[in-house]
Amino acid sequence: MAAGAEGVAAVLTTPDGAEATDTRLSAGAHYRAGSTTKAFLATVVLQLVGEGRLSLADPVCEPLPGVVTGNGHDGCRVTLRQLLQHTSGLPDYTAVPGAFPVARSPESYRAHRFDHRDPAGLVAAALTRPPAFAPGTGFAYSNTNYLLAGMIVERVTGRSWRAEVTDRVIRPLGLTGTFLPGDDPALPAPYARGRETFPGGDRPTDTTLLNGTAAGAAGELVTTARDLNRFLTALLGGELLAPAELAAMRDTRPVPGAPGHGYGLGLAAAPLSCGGSYWHHDGTTLGFTGANGVTADGTRAVTVWTNGHDSADPARQARVEAAMRALVDHALCGD
């Protein structure tokens, strides 16, 4: 909080049980986890790979013909692995004017917070911009990649990606505080109110209500800190993926500008101050910022989140995120 966060909740899970620490926020409160959703979706994709229903080498044009095309884009040159690892070169739809209006201003948020957003339309908006690079030749984080991955899951299984994540991950692990809300804009009790300071603003706006389809398979998840720790320990402990698929998930490439950091398939690696590294997938969304981490053996996990996000002051937001990552490091390195 000294770094400027609104309120903070943290939960540390160890082999001896869970130790919760909360400041101004309930450690059991629901919050929007943003891009942490990607780790859940990637887990389902890799389960389908293990079942032989998908291959990481599959080109996007096979399950989704004609979807990634035009303006220099060719879905037959983009593979499923490149989507999950952000090496596709596809532009991020959230940076396209009009595609993500809820993040532009308080007025735009209030006007669009209940809007349903179709993933195919968001992908089409992204593709109005040219590729960032040829597929497989660079790294650029893009939410568009995971919208497409969700669409592929639906095409292959015949069910929604939300149903697949729920039935394959959320329910088997008993994550009773975790769900994918879709068009339901409300958070269940107990919850913390999201507070977003929009670009150019000087005060936060209450952004608690939000139609999750604005983020979809790239960032829709609602969860709790305890549930997220359970997911992370199960994932790294081998409960959700066979050894080959878990190894593929942890096969990273360097993240430009972040020495020691790597991005795998919906899971990232970061160095620990005490030696070695940990695995995580942080997430931010309107009014919420989250950081998390789990040791390589899956025995120790921590989730930290705050009900504030500052798009008006990037330096302040960076301080908050650095403080959260430092707390994650301290918790994972502690005795």
UniProtKB/TrEMBL annotation:
Record keywords, A-Z: Hydrolase
Primary enzyme class: hydrolase
Enzyme Commission identifier(s): 3.1.1.103
Molecular function GO terms recorded: hydrolase activity
UniProt keyword annotation of NADP present: no
Organism lineage string: Bacteria, Bacillati, Actinomycetota, Actinomycetes, Kitasatosporales
InterPro entries cross-referenced by the UniProt entry: AmpC-like, Beta-lactam-related, Beta-lactam/transpept-like
Domain of life: Bacteria
Domain Beta-lactamase-related stretches: 11-319
Name assigned to this protein: Serine hydrolase domain-containing protein
